[in-house]
Amino acid sequence: MSLRWWRLAGRNLLRHRRRTWLTGSIVVVGFVAVTMTAGFMAQTFDALKQATIDGLGGQIRLLDPRAEGKTEEEAQSYLIEDWEGLARLIREDRRVVRIMPKLSFFGLAVKGERSVGYLGTGTDPRLELEGGFTPRTVATGTFFADPDGDEVMLGGGLARSLGAKAGDLVTVMTTTGDGALNAVDATVTAVLQYPIKELDDRILFLPYRAAARLLKVEGKAHTLAVRLSDTRQTEAAARTFSEVARAAGRPVAVRTWLETAAFYKQVRLLYIAIFLFMGIVLAVVVILAVANTMTMSVFERTREIGTLLAIGMERSQVKRLFLYEGLLLAIAGTLAGAAFSLLLRSVLNSLGLEMPPPPGATRGSPLHVRFFPVAYAAGFVLMTVTLLVASWWPARRASSLDPVAALAHV
Amino acid sequence: MDEDAGFPRGLPDVVPCRLAGGAAPALEAPGVPVRHRLEGDGPEDGEEHGHGQNPAKGSPAHPAEVSTGAPRPVSYTRPVAIVEARDLSRIYRLGEERVAGIRSASFAISPGEFAVVAGPSGSGKTTLLNLLGLLDRPDEGTLLFEGRDVSSLPDRERSRLRRDRIGFVFQSHQLVPVLTALENVALALWIRDLPEAECRRRAGEALEAVGLSGLGGRRPDALSGGQRQRVAVARALVGEPAFILADEPTASLDSETALRLLDLFDALHRGRGVTFVFSSHDPRIIGRARRRLRLKDGRIESDESAAENGGAA
Fold first, then answer.
1. Which of A311, A400, A410 to mutate to test the interface with B (most CBs of B within 10 A)?
2. Above pLDDT 70, what percent of chain B?
3. A16-53 pLDDT tens trace
4. pLDDT at residue A320 tops 90
């Protein structure tokens, strides 16, 4: 049907302005709820993704080929020999920003009479700083001052358990690969506030070289963390690195950040489930509100529908006319909703509100609603489908009226 | 009779009808109205008007409509009746009770007629018009529309026939309140999916024909009752239908406006040859018709033409 039917649908909607405004406002609120929630979720996913990548040191990790198919814990038994040689092979790739050796170990941290089990990471201080150790992470003290020095950074919970603070000396003990006990006395340069509480209570960082000396694995690394310029290139780059290493006779096991990001995947799944549930509830509310309005409209216009049928309008045309009214309401509602959503987003983001810490986390995060175009498109589709569903029954009822009975309707 | 007062004398300008062969008493049958064939109600210039025959077959359609008078010239060609009812009945079920809205109605409406279906409230006028307008289906009998049996036509086909061949004027104007007068008239063409420019041009012409040129931009609520009904007539007229059915078109009008609307019907009938079938229980309105089908309790009590009932010269 041509533009004139859209025009007629529009005028029909404006017959009862107040009712149309009320129904339209439900569509607007529904749309705003969808886009704002999705924007917040997208922001959370992004932040979590970034935190995961930062925590790993990059989007891709290269491991010894014997770690292929092994769990994360099992994989820590194998070391990459001559990590610098392997790094040279892939450094030429234009997608690579930096390559960082990492050592993982565990043992006891001792300060005076207190000893606490820890999970340790040996990392390159300079590269780590570039890669995501933000000032927010350091609660007290300063980041590593000397990459070659015997320095240590403690998680906030671990520091509290040890009674350690910046400037204190802590003994870090572990067992080497050959089963010998080794220890290093390191100065606490910083106490961190690690976002995940379980890690905050256990984690410590040593500069790579200090960790390598502790483990007696100089020149080796458990993993090579590769930071890419674009996370979207992760899969393609992973394939390339695997091929390049194999071609050079140094096969490696390649893991992407997503493969080991269990927490990210769980949070994402949970949020999506909540979002879908909320979407369904919203859709039901919108359907009920719109269906009620449209049914009232059909009832009020029964004689008019009878007239249209009498003068030869086909039933399908009558049905389409009501569906157009629903569609028009969806379009107008989503346009107004989009404008309102953008405005609300700007206001909320400018307020600098802080979200409370999620379960298991040590700190909250700033409330930031991202502009997420996919959510706007999805909101439009959701509202359109919802309003079509809501209009369908009243439209069907209108189109199936008996013209004689409809004309006699009072 | 009172109701004959004001009946226009003489023959229609556009569709002059004269019955060749003269009047003859009709065969009366139970449930079948008397159909008198008189001067002023006959076929156009040497053509028989076609009331009494099945045009498709060229044979007598119904005993009641067969003239038994003088032999007719064999050179006549019979125009197809617009609509022809044969033993048409419509029965309503009210619980266990069966109420006949229309019983065994047989008659035909030919091009150029100006006929009224008269009768008191509840006599079946609206039911009959609904059947003629293909809004309702008969329970018994046959309805031919332009020679084609439409009694059991599918809904979609009936819609298209109504859209293309029948104009409707209702008791209340039944205009769409959110459309202007011009758009209300154009609506009858919109549903044919005609181009907008053509719809507007033809709607403008139809409004001019009913004396409302210049008021096309007004919405119904800015028009008087009589003007609204004229818009409704224009809407019925704009599609150039085979005939216009008007169910009590003056019922919601004051008497002066009602008569003016009848003047309009009359002018359109005379000037443009528009075929009108309307219903009324108002004697003054009934008196203006050239043919009167009188209903009582769902039965056609009589079927009279102008000259016979004293209205003609």
1. A311
2. 72
3. 899 999 999 999 999 999 999 888 888 888 888 887 88
4. yes
Residue carrying the six token digits 């220890």: A183
The two three-digit tokens of residue B240, written as one number: 């150039």
DSSP string, A212-252: HHHHT-TT-BSEEEEEES-GGGHHHHHHHHHHHHHHTT---
Residue pLDDT, tens place only, A174-216: 998 888 899 999 999 999 887 778 888 999 999 999 999 999 9
Mean pLDDT of A214-237: 92
Return d(Cα B274, Cα B268) in angstroms, integer: 6
DSSP alpha helices (H): ranges in chain B? 125-132, 155-165, 181-190, 196-209, 225-237, 255-272, 283-286
A37: tokens are 């929630």
Closest CA–CA distance from residue B218 to any residue of chain A (Å): 15
Q: What are the residues facing A151 on neighbouring strands?
A: A187
Q: Is A302 on the interface with B (CB under 8 A)?
A: no
Q: Cα distance from B162 to chain A (closest Cα, Å)? A: 5
Residues of chain B found within 8 Å of residue A2, distances taken between Cβ atoms: 193, 196
- Among A14, A315, A407, the residue with its CB nearest the CB of B170 is A407
Q: Among residues of chain B, what percentage have pLDDT more than 90?
A: 49
Q: Phi and psi (nearest 5°) for A58? A: 170, 175
